User: Fold this.
Amino acid sequence: MPTEATDGRLPQQDARPVRIAAAGDVHAREGMEQQLGESFAALRGRADLVLLAGDLTTCGDPKEARVLADACTGLEIPVIAVLGNHDWHLDRADEIAAVLSDAGVVVLDRASTEIEAAGLRIGIAGAKGFVGGFPGSHLPDFGEPALRMVYAEGTAEIKGIARGLQEISTCDVRIVLLHYSPTEQTLAGEPEGIWAFLGTDRMAAPIREYEPDLVLHGHAHVGSLEGSIGSVPVYNVSVPVIGKDFWIFELTGVREAAPPVH
Assistant:
């Protein structure tokens, strides 16, 4: 479970930590080659894993994805990402994912992956997530077909999160990586009138059920850093919120019900 954030504090446990660099809303574009290259290169020796919480590009152009891909090439640190709404803007998400995959980035879309780092099995369940609202402002599964399609898209994302968590259930560390927010707590600071477009607490259901160790998301540029779903910590790692290139977490795989990790 999470033990410490280098830039913030979580409860300490006795175990060798894995260092995770996280960021959302990088918004890569042409002209950012040097900036992104330097920020990713600075992670060498500081992180075991990089997690990118969507909006990898500015307008969803594969040329923008190439800028980010070049920054990740040769990094020798696993990079896991999900796409965001900006990456879908030109409806070329498959091309963006292909460009990043060619550079070694694992792009998750209602899927999961496992890696080994710091002697731990780390499982990441990744999905874009979607809109839908929070208590008092939920979009309904009723009315016009277009509105019900929005609801259905959210349902598909939720099922993808649940499926991913099932697949990584035996990992030492389990992380949910999203773009949209699953809790209103990390939206504080954003106008409440747009919260329904920044995420939905419907995504909290599988998180409560499977209790991963950490949830990361982006999208809410003027939201808040920290929140929780039950006992599960949730962090909004949007670059405008964290105020730096990456937020670095330290986690261990020690849980009360888990065997010792060697």
